[in-house]
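Fold it.
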Amino acid sequence: MSEEPGDGVGEVGSVLGALADPTRRRLLDLLAAQDAATATTLAQWLPVSRQAIVKHLAVLDSAGLVVSCRVGREVRYSLRPAGLDATTRWMSSLAADWDRRLAAVKRLAEAAEAAERDST
């Protein structure tokens, strides 16, 4: 994939970087299971401090994977599924390229096998 401005490469990198951490992936799982949650609520489910949760949520927010909304004194976080769109498109394109390459290898292998059978 080329690195043209506006082609989503930076966004894909941010998302993949955010998803590289198991704690952040777990936070996304927890948020997927509920409508919205505070950092305090999320910290009850993970073996890290509330402050660490806030830092992880900031990374997820920066990558566009979560949104925050202040409700009174609380900040509630929820998923932003559209944050995965560019990454999904990139991965789908990559998978399609691999499928085409594997199909070409399969055709070559089958042709070589058929040629070998015909020569014997």
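The CA atoms of residues 40 and 50 lie 6 Å apart.
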